Amino acid sequence: METTNTILKESSLHVSTKPIISIRGLKIAFGSNVVLDGFNLDLNKGESIVVLGKSGSGKSVLIKCIIGLLTPDAGEVLIFGEDVLKMNHYQLDQVRARLGFLFQSNALYDSMTVKENLEFPLRRHWIKIDQKKVDKMVIEALTNVGLAHTVNMMPSELSGGMRKRIALARTLILRPEVILYDEPTTGLDPVTGKEISELMVEIADHYQTSAIVISHDMRCVRRTAERIAVLINGKCYAQGTYDELKKSTDILIKQFFDT
Amino acid sequence: MLRQCYLIGNKSLPLVGITAFIMGLVLTIQLRPSLLEYGAESQIPYIVSYAIIREIGPVITALIFAGKIGSSIGAELGSMKVTEQIDAMEVSGTNPFKYLVVTRVLATTLMLPILVIISDGISIMGSFVGVNIRGVMSFQLFFDQVFRWLNFSDIFPAVIKTFFFGFSVGMVGCFKGYQTSRGTEGVGLSANSSVVISSMLIFLIDLIAVQITDILGFN
Question: Are residues B43 and B149 in contact, defined by beta-carbon separation less than 8 angstroms?
Answer without folding.
Answer: no
